[in-house]
What we know:
Structural class: alpha+beta
Number of domains: 2
Keywords: Hydrolase
Strand content: 15-25%
CATH architecture of the largest domain: 3-Layer(aba) Sandwich
Protein name: Alpha/Beta hydrolase protein
Number of helices: 17
Largest sheet: 10 strands, mixed
Family: Belongs to the AB hydrolase superfamily.
Distance between the termini: 50 Å
InterPro entries: AB_hydrolase_1, AB_hydrolase_fold
Oligomer: single chain
Shape: elongated
CATH superfamily of the largest domain: Alpha/Beta hydrolase fold, catalytic domain
Domain AB hydrolase-1: 283-406
CATH class of the largest domain: Alpha Beta
Amino acid sequence: MAGMLHVTMQPREGLSLDQFHEWYNNEHGPTRLRLPHIFSNGLRYRDDKGFMACYDVTDMAHLETPTYTQLRANRSDREAATIGQVDVDRRFLDLISSDQSPLFVPTEQLTDDEADGLLLLGSTIVLRNDVEGAEDAVVKWHAEQHAPAIAVIPGWRRTRLFRTPSKVEGLTTEVAIMAFHDFIKPNGYEHTETLKAAWKLDPIREYLSSDNTRFWRLFYVFGPAPRDLQPLSSLPTTAAFTSDDARTSTTPSSSPAISSYITTADGLDIPYRLEGNHSPSAPAVAFCNSLLTSLRMWDPLVAILKSERPDLRILRYDTRGRHAVPGPPVPATLGMLSSDLATILSALRIPKLHALVGVSMGGATTLKFALTHPDKLGKFIACDFNVGSSDANTAGWKERIALAEDSSPDKGIAKLAGLTVERWFHPHTMTEKKDVAEWMTKMVGENSVQGFRYSCQALWDYNMREEMKACKVPGLLVVGDGDGKGALVKAMEGFKANVGQEGAELKIVEKAGHLPMCESPGGFWEATKAFL
């Protein structure tokens, strides 16, 4: 039986609204949306009296399972402290009926701009328990008289009727019927009188113990991952939060940050970091790292970006292969890597990136994403990559896998890390910036061997030479002058004219090799800032 988890909340005096919203938006809600077999969405509303959250439930029986009940039993200390300062009315609702306009679109499928301010008329009718047939009479009245009267009001999109308590909770002396009517936002509060006029309870007055009607405005749509930087920008540093499993943390400041993870359809957990401008409407730039590195490879560039472009939200994530992959393991493809990014953007409700920047395997992924998801991308910067694989490269990858998996002394992933960084970096970096080389060697050496084995296969057999000619997203190409001892400069010079109808400009970063944004972050910024 489908239904709803319905919660009304009123923070008590003394509880900071920023703390309340940061907890709810970045901890409580996403934790539930990470259970898509139970909750299909999560929406937050407000009126002048308080706040309401509605979660559509696929089957009310799920709310009696340990998967859900343990969420409440294992609350974090912060959640327990916060909820203790909130007056809460929490109800399980069984769905009785649902009617919708042909124009109705599920709210979770709208962008935040489209969803913000949608109107919801919520009504609660508490039934008399001493009048036989009260529930049937009210349901009949709703279907035959009330719902049709509401449905003809301009802007109506959906009406749903629920019963509480849910049958999974057992019998009770008090039963309530709750109705929710969805309207598009242009009708707003100016139509509340029309709505009230349609709310005629006289035919069922004898069955009612009490009734209550509230007009709610939507202001937040949950996704399966925390993303709300706004309240963090106003909280003190003492309000920083780390989850019990240490997989989610929030950092309050004028340039706040959230670190957490997103789970793909095949069960891979992808860590990400969102930071920078706290406005939910701020343009977002995403970074796609190279094979064997982590999202931390962008640290030097992000420091520059936060100083030079404080208007941007900055998203980084660990590309598939950084960590162990789900079983049964399968070789990655560029299409799979592109889909991973689309999943991340969906989870964080980012409908379109201002820009995507990727290097090496991340550069190939960036171009693939521009080709497969042009509607989600404004522009891209693809660095130090090739548009197609070769047999020689494939043989090289197999040799590196064998080295990484070899448990003999002086071999394994640590040996691969040293050889890889020496191959990647410019001689100038290796001699004059030894701390950078050591930092990168340590990062590479911490990569999952299994992840490396299956993700590097994305670079074995791919070819974007023809399809990139149809690229519709503006792009910039960047390469370190010493990458492959200059061979990659020649390769990128050879295909730059075929990126889209007008081709792409190629910028060369001096005294840099395969990772110019790490070896020469200032030089990389100078090469890209005008385009970005």
